[in-house]
Amino acid sequence: MSGEKYAVTVRSSFSAAHRLLEYPGNCEKLHGHNWQVEITVESGSLDSRGMALDFREMKTALGEILARMDHKYLNEVPPFDGLNPSSENIARHIFDRMEGKIPSPARLSRVAVWESEDAWAEYSRPGR
Ligand SMILES: [Zn+2]
What we know:
CATH topology: Tetrahydropterin Synthase, Chain A
Structural class: alpha+beta
CATH class: Alpha Beta
Order of helices and strands: EEHHEE
Largest sheet: 4 strands, antiparallel
Number of helices: 2
Number of strands: 4
Radius of gyration: 16 Å
Bound molecules: zinc ion
């Protein structure tokens, strides 16, 4: 087995409002962000087209997930009606929904969520 690894990343964005519960500060008040989202997929091999995973497929799958949150008040959208809509929780939620959409042998390795240009959260976990 070679240690080769390819990583492919796509970026997309969505706009939404949220408020952070139990947070002493401005983020407890209703406000909005233009979140940037990056997903990275890794694979040890390429398909017959020379791709780890088609960027277009990744963008389509990510777009479906983000559409549920775009222009919404996140605190009312499951699972954030019972889970604080922090960038960390948003990243994990996107990871959970995205993981099953990635065909083997590729695997989702990372989701990063930018709340602003200079502040972001990342989520990853070991593959199954
Ligand atoms: Zn915020």
